[in-house]
Specification:
Strand content of chain A: under 5%
Distance between the termini of chain A: 38 Å
Largest sheet of chain A: none
Largest sheet of chain B: 10 strands, mixed
Structural class of chain A: mainly alpha
Structural class of chain B: alpha/beta
Strand content of chain B: 15-25%
Number of strands of chain B: 10
Oligomer: heterodimer
Number of helices of chain A: 27
Distance between the termini of chain B: 57 Å
Chain lengths: 522, 336
Amino acid sequence: MTLFKPKHISLSIGILVTLLILLPLFYLLIYAIPDGKQVTSDGFSNIFSAGILKSIFNSVTISAFVSTFSVIIGSCFAFLFSKTRLPFKNLFKFLILLPLLLPPYIFAVAWTDTWFYFGLDRDLIYSPFSVIFIMISVYTPLAAFIIEGSLNNISSSIEEAGVTMTSYTNVMLKVIIPLIRPALLSSFIVIFVLTISEFSVPFYLSVNVFPTEIFLQFTAFYNYSSAIVQALILTLICLLLIFPERIFLAGTPFISIGGRSLRFKSISHKTDFKYIILCLAYILLFVLTPFISLIIQSIGKSGEPSILYTIKQLSPSLWDSLLISFAGSFVVTLSGFIFAVLSVRYRIKIAGYFLLFVFAVPAIVIGIALVKFYNTSLFNFIYGSSLIILIAFIARYAFISQKIFTNGLLQIPESFQEAAKLTGASHFYTFRKITMPLLGESFYISFFIIMIFCVSELTSVIMIYPPGISLLPVRIFTLMANAPQSTISRMCLIALGFSLGLIVIMISGRKILFSQKWRSNQ
Amino acid sequence: MIKFSLLISGIMIYTILLLPSCKDKNHVVVYTSVDQVFSEPVLMAFENKTGIKVKAVYDTEEAKSTGVLNRLLSEKDNPRCDVFWSGDPMRADVLRQKDISEPYHAQNADGINSVFIEKNYNWIGFSSRARVLLINTELVKEDDVPESILNLTEEKYRGKVAIANPLFGTTSFHIAGLFVELGDEKATRFMNDLKRNDIVIATSNGDVKKKVSDGEVSMGLTDSDDGNEAVKEGLPVKMFFLDQSGIGNLIVPNTVSLIRNSPNNENGKKMIEYLLSSESERMLAESCAQMPLHKGIQLPANVPSLDDIKPMNVDYKAVAEKSEQIRDFLKQWTEK
C-alpha cells in the first residue's frame, strides 16, 4: 500500500517526465559532441569573440528591460483587476490579453508597418528599443495574469487588519507586495527566459542577439556541435536567475491565507477616473494600434482571394490544433503541478531547477533532441504520433505551469493538511477536498495560459509534427510565404479569432469545471 | 475539478489515439521547402491521380527551411521521408554530401538539360525561378535601372537597394554563383562595395518584396516568384533580368531527391516522376510563374521562357559547394 502514497505517485510521474525530456537532451549532447577537442575548437573558442559577447550583452540587456517593465505594468493591471471596482474589468482583461494570442513575429510585422506609416525613423525602427517595446506589449498580460492569480489568493482579512492600523499605501508596501513576491519573481523569470530565447522579433528587426547566433549555426552552417555549445551557454545564463530568486525570496512571508479567517472577498477600492484613462491609453497604444493595422491590411483588393478562401485554407488545421492544444495544456498543467508539489511539499528543489533548465533550452534544440532520440523503431509510437508534440509542449512550458502552482502551494499553510490528517482524513481525501479546491485558481490560470502558448507554438512543433497532421501556426506560417498581404493579415485575424474562441470556451466552462462554491459562500 | 479532469483526459486519449500519422499503407511522405501555397496543389494533384496518399511536411524559405532540412539531417539513421522537394539545388546538395539522398535516374528527367541534374542523379532539377531585380516604379524610372548586378555598387544607388540575408536560401545560392562566375577576389570586392554602399539586408526574399513595394527601398534583389506575386497583387513594381549582355542572370531550379532507405521507396519514385513531368511544370508555371525546364510546354503570358533569358552559365554542383566555402565570409559580411 505504501507504494501508492501521494509522494510516491508524484515522484514516479516526475521521474517519468524527467526521463522523457532529459534523455533526448543528453543523447543530443553526446551525439553532437563526440570528443572534447571538437567542442573547444568549434564552440567555446568562438564564445569569446567580440561579436558573440556583444550579442550576449544585447540579449541580457533586452531581456532585463522587457521583464522589468512587463512586471511593473503587469502588476498595475493585476492590482486594478483584483483590488478595485474597475468598470468594464473583463473587457479590459480581454483586450490586454490580445497580444499574447499571436506569435510575436506577426506582431513585429504589424508594428513596423504602423511605424513606417507614421514616418518613424528607420534607424529607430530597426533598433533594440523596438524589440523591447514589442516584447513588453506581448508579455505584459502574462505578468498581469500570474500576479493577479496571486493577489486573488490573499485573504482579505489580512488587508482589513492592516487597514485598521495604517494607510492602504502602507498595507500595499508592507503586506501585499511582500506576499506576492513569489509571483513577481516568477513573472520576471518566465518573461526573462522567454525574451532571451526569442529569436523571431530581433531577427526581423535586424538586432543581433545570442539566439540569432545559435540559429545561424543550425541553419546556415549545420554545425550542431557549435550550436549546442552556444545553447548551453544560453541555458547557463538563464540558470543564473536561480541565485537572485534565492536572495529575493529569502524570508518571504508566504502564508497569506489566515487560518480561521479564510476569506477571499477582497477590499474593493473605488476606481479613480485617471486609472480608466491610463488603461484606455495603454490598450490604444500597445494593443489596438497593431491590430487596427492588421485589420486595414486584411481589406483586400479586387481579384485577391476572398476571406472564405482563406478560411477554407486554414480549416484542415483547426480540429487538430484544438485537440492538441487542449491535450497539451492538460499534460503540461499536470506536469507543472507534480513538479510544484515535489519542490514545495516534498522539498525536492532540483525538480524546480530541472524545469528551469529545460525551459531555458532553445526550442530548436528541443526539437532536434526529440527527433534524434525518439526516431527509432522502439519509440515509433511516440515519434509517429501526436505524443511527440505533447512531450515538446511539456519541455517548453511546464516551467511556467510549475511556477504558477508553486505560488499557489506556497500560499496554502501546511497546517491545513496537518489538521486534516489529525481528523483521520486520508492523503487523497485531503488532496481532493483541501489542496485541489484551494489550487482551483492556479489550475485555471495554468490551463488558460498554457493553452494560449500551445495554440501558437511554432518553433519546436515545426521540427516534429508528424506528416499528415496539420497545426494552425505551422499552416499559417507555411502559407504566409508568397501570399498577398491581405491574406496574411486575414490568416492572423482568423488565428486570433480561433484563440479567442478557445478563451471564450475556457471562461464559459470555468464556473462548471472549476467550481469554487466555498469562495462565493463566504 | 473531477469533471474537468475527466473531460480533458477523454480529449487527450482521443488526441493520442486518433492522430497517429501512419495509418494509410499506400502513402508517400514528402518534405518540401517550397512554399505551401504552391506545392500543396501539385501534391494533391498527384494524390488524386494515383490514389497514393501524400503526407507532407511543409516548410518555407522564410524560415530558412530550418524544419525540413534539420529533420532530414536528424532522421538520417531512420528515415521517415521518401522525397525531398527543394526550392533550390543547394539544400539538395547538402543531403548528397551527407549521404542522405539516393541516386535515382527518373525517366522524366530525360527531357531536362543535364546542367540542371547532379551527375549521379542524387538530385534532379525541374521548374525554375530566376533571380531578378524588383523595382518600385513610383521611385525609379526605367532609365535608371542598372543593367548589371555589378552596377548596384554605384553611388546613385546608395541606401536604395535591398537584399535578403545572404546566409540563407536562394540569395546565398546567388552570391555563391557570383563567386563561381567572377572568381573569389572580384566577388569579394563586389560584396564589400555593396556593403559600403549601404545595402539594406532584409530577413527574406519576401521581405525584400515588401520593402520595395512599400517604398522603404527603391529596388531589391529577389526571386521571380516573389516578384510575380507582387505584380499580381497590383503593387507598383516591375521585374528586370540583369546582365543580359554580360555574365547572365542566375536561374534557380527546384530539385527533387529520393531519400536513401526511405520507407515507401517505390511510391517515392512515382512522386519524383510526377514532379518531373510536364503536368507539374505547367501547374507551377500557372500558379507561381516558374519556368519549365521541359521544352514545348504552353506558358501563361506572364511567364518568361528560358529561351528568352541569358542564363548565368554555372555548374550548379560547384555553386552549391562554393556556398559552403563562403559562409564564414558572408557571416562576417552581414555583421559588419
